[in-house]
Amino acid sequence: MKAGQIFELTAKTLSGLEPMLANELADIGVEEVQIGTRVVEFTGNLATVYKANLHCRTALRILVKLDSFVAEDVDQLYEGAMQFPWEQYFGVNDTFAINATLIRSTITHTQYASLKVKDAIADRFRKISNNERPSVDVLAPDFRINVHISSNYCTLSLDSSGESLHRRGYKLGMHEAPMSEVLVAGLLMLSGWDKKTPLLDPMCGSGTFLTEAALMATNTPPGMFRKQFGFESWKGFDDNLWRKVKGDAKEKITPLTTEISGSDFNSKSLEAAAENIKNCGFEMDIRVEKLAFEKMEAPGKPMFLIMNPPYGERLKPEQLNGLYAMIGSKLKNDFPGSEAWIISPNIDAMKNVGLKPSRKITVYNGPLECKFMNFKMFKGSLKEFKGGPQAEA
Predict the structure, then answer these.
(1) Which run of H or E residues covers position 34?
(2) How far is CA 338 from CA 306, 310, 333, in A?
């Protein structure tokens, strides 16, 4: 692959985050995009590939299209994959893995589709390399190949990211199941946080909202802490270009001047949060403390709150309802002039907040359908407030 070559590219994301990803691509210089379901398609050169991997907070993977052909059955799939010149991209001493997705395909099993493409690649290398072939490594391959078959039309792509881009490289400490960094970044964008208003997560867990908010506020690329991207293993990897892309990004990083803080009652969660914050270099800027939300003192100033409260796995229904009622009461009484965003898959529990949301957005946390709700607390009476139906404090 050469620096001036133009590629057809696909950025994968989570459902509902496609517009945010399209905006991010525009920020790195992409002029035209096509938004699909959980994907954004665009074109660009090698620098675009590097920039998209480094900068896009809401992208999961950046795929580079290699070839496409009709694949109405596994024989056509095998022949199409066999004809592609894989040797131009990797050699017999490299490892590879294949990920297949099928949509409206007469080929019905993704594992079988992956196996046929694997066989085609192996047979091609045996034919041209004295019976030698690259090995498969599903855990840490040098090359990840994406096979996408839709309506019996197959697209072969090379995954330029390697590991999923939600693995930023800073999260070494975690407690229980953390929310994906890609989803958290998307929620911050959906919320409209201005990167200036003090941000508080009173149920911060391992601190993902805190770290992602700090990265955004300082214009720090989310990929700056990763040790490796998939494209660094490619033939034709342009190390000078990659150094320039990273160097240009570092010049635009600014100090954190926004107040960002978090709290949690769980000591192990806070230890993980502190470690992750330190790994990002924000240990002197972001404050975390062991404190239950109900015991937090009123800040005396408008805040931007964002939280992912428990939703029932370990709590009895009456405990859960009480927790959400406490959240609503605390917001109303102690945070006048503030704005809060809460994400939860438990709609019944959310009703106990007792405040009228000004906005509801459907998002997915893994397979769970969640509501991301906005509450605005204001001073005085509803008649005095001109912003619409909000929560009276």
Answers:
(1) strand 33-35
(2) 11, 22, 11
Q: Average pLDDT for residues 107-114, to the nearest whole number? A: 94
- Residue 197: the pLDDT is 97
Strand partners, 263: 289
Taking the whole predicted model, whether its pTM rises above 0.85 is answered as yes
Task: State the pLDDT at residue 380.
Answer: 55
Q: Which CATH superfamily groups domain 181-222+254-392?
A: Vaccinia Virus protein VP39 (3.40.50.150)
Q: Using an 8 Å Cβ cutoff, are 91 and 134 in contact?
A: yes
Split at pLDDT 50, 70, 90, the class of 145 is very high
CATH number of 7-159: 3.30.2130.30
Length of the chain counted residue by residue: 393
89, 127 in Cβ contact below 8 A?
no
Nearest to 86 by CA among 130, 139, 48, 143: 143
Short-list 371, 376, 372, 380, CA closest to 390 = 376
Angle between helices 110-128 and 74-83 (to 10 degrees): 40
Closest CA to 183 of 382, 42, 362: 362
Q: For 57-99, how does the pLDDT look when each residue is reduced to its tens digit (9 = 90+)? A: 999 999 999 999 999 999 999 999 999 999 999 999 999 999 9
Would you give the DSSP letter of residue 352?
Answer: G
